């Protein structure tokens, strides 16, 4: 599949990732893009990568570097094509083992009963299915610290709400499509609310996002306390 890379406004490139990019390759790509000169932001999703340039530089000045980074991180490339290992500049960061997060959840969300009815389950079964999975951070976005977590049980895969809420409370745990995630801040949102994360801070102004691409997450139902 030929590499497709297009302008995204006047200060950004967006590249369509070739088929076969796994989360390890995308972690390496993210670090490689962040290490490029003149780049102020880089985002890697499951299908695309985007970089934003510093003001005052032309898009053409980094086009080749972005294209090379995407191509080198492609797991389908052979060693002779330069696809087996990331550069030394990013190797130390990209090969750090993904972290594991256990997040306590109070499963009392406003949509728990509705999700149960739509899934043909009881609320308790919804909680059990949601909490039995180990999730993987597939991408970051939407809000600072918002992690799109994959591995949702197929019985819980539902489309977004027909009418989004004007305000979803901070730390709400929700599902939509194949993803689950925690709202770091109060915001509008159209996902189904299952509960609230307890004692977990998805984003801190000093430390940044608590989760990163490739991290693993388990949700632990809150134990009732006397």
Task: Report what the structure shows.
By secondary structure, the protein is an alpha+beta fold. Helix content is 22%, strand content 32%. It contains five helices and 15 strands. It has a seven-stranded mixed beta sheet. A four-stranded antiparallel beta sheet has the order 1-2-4-3, with helices on one face. Helix 1 packs across helix 3. It starts with a strand and ends in a 5-residue tail after the last strand.
Main traits of this protein?
226 residues; Cyclophilin; Gyrase A, domain 2; 22% helix; seven-stranded mixed beta sheet; 2 domains
CA-to-CA gap between the ends?
59 Å
Q: What's the arrangement of strands in the largest beta sheet?
A: 7-6-15-5-12-9-10
CATH topology value of the largest domain: Cyclophilin
Largest sheet: 7 strands, mixed
Task: Report Rg.
Answer: 19 Å
CATH class of the largest domain: Mainly Beta
Q: Domain count, please report it.
A: 2
Please name the CATH architecture of the largest domain. Answer: Beta Barrel
Q: What fraction of the residues are assigned to beta strands by DSSP?
A: 25-35%
Instruction: Output the helix-strand order.
Output: EEHEEHHEHHEEEEEEEEEE
């Amino acid at each position: 599949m030929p590499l497709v890379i297009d302008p995204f406004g006047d200060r950004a490139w967006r590249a369509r990732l070739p088929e076969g990019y796994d989360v390890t390759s995308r972690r390496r790509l993210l670090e490689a893009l962040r290490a490029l000169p003149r780049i102020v932001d880089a985002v890697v999703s499951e299908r695309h990568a985007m970089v934003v340039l510093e003001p005052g530089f032309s898009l053409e000045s980094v086009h080749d570097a972005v294209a090379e980074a995407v191509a080198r991180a492609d797991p389908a490339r052979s060693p002779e094509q330069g696809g087996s290992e990331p550069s030394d500049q990013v190797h130390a960061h990209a090969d750090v083992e993904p972290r594991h997060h256990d997040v306590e959840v109070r499963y009392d969300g406003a949509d728990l009963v509705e999700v149960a009815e739509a899934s043909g389950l009881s609320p308790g079964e919804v909680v059990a299915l949601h909490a039995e999975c180990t999730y993987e951070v597939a991408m970051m976005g939407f809000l600072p610290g918002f992690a799109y977590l994959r591995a949702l049980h197929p019985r819980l895969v539902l489309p977004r709400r027909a009418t989004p809420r004007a305000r979803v409370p901070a730390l709400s745990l929700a599902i939509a499509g194949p993803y689950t995630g925690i709202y770091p801040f109060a915001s509008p949102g159209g996902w189904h609310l299952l509960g609230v994360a307890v004692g977990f801070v998805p984003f801190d102004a000093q430390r940044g996002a608590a989760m990163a691409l490739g991290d693993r997450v388990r949700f632990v139902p809150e134990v009732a306390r006397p």
